[in-house]
Amino acid sequence: MGEALLAGLIKSGIDKDLIRISDVSEERRRRVCERLNIRCCEDNAEVVAESDIIILAVPPTVAPKVLRDLGDKLTLSHLVISIAAGVTTSRLFKGAGKRLKLIRVMPNNPCLIGEGMIVLAPTELVTDDDIEEAKRLFMSIGRVVVAIEDYLDAVTGLSGSGPAYAYLVIEALADGGVKMGLPKGLSLTLAAQTLAGAAKMVLETGKHPAELKDMVATPGGTTVQGLYVLEAAGVRSAFIKAVEEATLKSRNLMNEKTKG
């Protein structure tokens, strides 16, 4: 996800000379810097010394340790942005040994193509200007909204995990088309574009999905017959349950990793 954000920032026109990166893997660090033509730093401390905005794009289990190592170098002049999933503000502050200007961020998989859903959860020391700066950065890879931290586990269960649910639906619809005689490539294109178009209708018209659904489902027609099958199979409740279970898993994930 860190590489996707870097590519998005560069594509949006941010001066490459303002970007610094470091990585525990020297090979990966060199590869990214050469591919994107940006400056590499030998360690995180060097990045912090030369930056105002610090993006923490590391595995969740090591995020507190990274901040612990940087604790004396981070000040309130730095805006720290964490995309480490499931790592709460309290854990991050504990790692740093102090309170920081911190924004937790939950992106998702389509950020890789600039069509992501990104949720920002700012902490109390973050200013309105900081939030606008963070929004500007993440708008380069998708749509951005601001929410409170208490929502982030549910955000993870919905938009964080949601692309996988959508891929499953696309796959199933495409398989249905193949079952009824459509070529596989054509069927997959029809399924993917149908979901993409439906999502855009919701976002651009502002209409409730139920209203849009009724626009397609004419009385006694093919669509209402298909909807009847989906409702009878419990598809709606299955999606609701999937979001619920993923949310609960997110709440418990760090505790499980810590015990492990």
Task: Describe what you observe in this structure.
This protein is α/β, with parallel strands linked by helices. The protein has 2 domains: 2-155, Rossmann fold, CATH 3.40.50.720; 162-256, ProC C-terminal domain-like (ProC C-terminal domain-like fold, Orthogonal Bundle), CATH 1.10.3730. It has 12 helices and 7 strands. The protein has a 5-stranded mixed beta sheet. A two-stranded parallel sheet has the order 1-2. Helix 5 (89-96) links the parallel strand 4 (79-82) and strand 5. It is elongated. The mean pLDDT is 92.
Topology:
Layout: H1 2-11, E1 20-21, H2 26-36, E2 39-40, H3 44-49, E3 53-56, H4 63-70, E4 79-82, H5 89-96, E5 101-106, E6 116-122, H6 128-138, E7 142-146, H7 152-160, H8 162-179, H9 184-205, H10 209-216, H11 222-232, H12 235-259
Parallel strand pairs: 1-2, 3-4, 4-5, 6-7
Antiparallel strand pairs: 5-6
Helix pairs in contact: 4-5, 7-12, 8-9
Shape: elongated
Output the CATH homologous superfamily of the largest domain: NAD(P)-binding Rossmann-like Domain
Please name the CATH topology of the largest domain.
Rossmann fold
Write down the secondary-structure element order: HEHEHEHEHEEHEHHHHHH
What structural class do the secondary elements suggest?
Answer: alpha/beta
- Please estimate the helix content: 55-70%
What's the quick description here?
The protein is α/β, with parallel strands linked by helices and about 260 residues long. The chain is built from twelve helices and seven strands.
